[in-house]
Amino acid sequence: MKTKILSALLFILSFTTFAQEKVNFTEKFKKENQGKSTIEINEVKELLTIMLAITDFGLENDDMFEQKGDYYQRVLKHFKPYKEEAVIQTMNSLLSKNPLEYIFFTGNAQTYFLKNGVLVPNEAYVLPANKVANVKIEVNPITTYKSEIEDFAKKSHFSDFYKSEKPFYDKIISDYEKYSNLQKQWNWLEKNFDTKINSYIIYTSALINGLNYTGGYENNNFHLIEMVLPTVQKVEGRSEKNSEAFNTRSMFTEIDHNYVEKPSVQHKEELNTALKDREKWVNTKAYGTEYYPDGFKVFNEYMTYGVFILYAEETYKGDTQLLLEINNEVNSVMIDRGFIKMKEFNEKLKNLRSKNKKKKIDELYPELIKWCSLQ
């Protein structure tokens, strides 16, 4: 029987940002990455994801690991014979005590390259995922278990498996480039907000399911955003345009946290006052709303999805049926999550946008906050 132990965590991880002093962006790194958006199935990250997926904990949590599809079956066939290895048992124990260990392992995967079976340090990343929610670590778990991870990779012939799956990985990346429109989203957000980001990286895997997260790093006047997301989803019963919008929403509502956050911080005190009566804004009985304890955090979540609606209204302008489907789905999803005034919030935000088309979205905050205070 599959458990859903992570359901509460899924609400808080989409806007996770890690401490920013644990990276080292040299001038060379900045030059190589400026203005680039990269989609990658990182080798070390895939290794660690596979190792975590074959733990007893991973096998019992299909909300953490995608367990449908041929790739998962190929992973089980190749790697499950090694699940009794000591390092897998250690990972299982760590996950059982704290599911956030998933992020501390996979979120620090880029700190190493795998070369000839040896984990070689990546100078740009020291300990990027060092704090999630209220949990903080001081030591990279990959460093702690470096020799054990190397031994597992060699014993299981991971590199051979990874190379054999390259055509499958290439198809995942090409689908992302075709259907996710990352550059288009990035351009729109840069145009409509004051915040500027230097580079984006998407790490994906066919093993990722609901546990998605975002990390933001600033170092040496360079701001990089990374996102860990599932592969592009092809949902039965959706039109091609609706599927595109669905996949866009999944990514967009990760990306735009980085743009919504800055003006929200500038108005934090006003937001906490305007939305102080939480029961007007969230169904406090809905599971997960406890992670939005004040007006500032409640507003940010409304705004994150509200801005996606603004993007959709502009991107799919003229397609009345599709826009109706997008609006209805966003409102439904958010209301189910406990954000009970999503429909009214979206209508007000769209109205403000239509009257102030030449203004940055940052500039709409004062009037939107005033409206919130009158509800």
Automatic annotation (TrEMBL):
It comes from the Bacteria. Residues 1-19 form the signal peptide. Keywords: Signal. The keyword Signal applies. The lineage of its organism: Bacteria, Pseudomonadati, Bacteroidota, Flavobacteriia, Flavobacteriales. This is DUF4932 domain-containing protein.
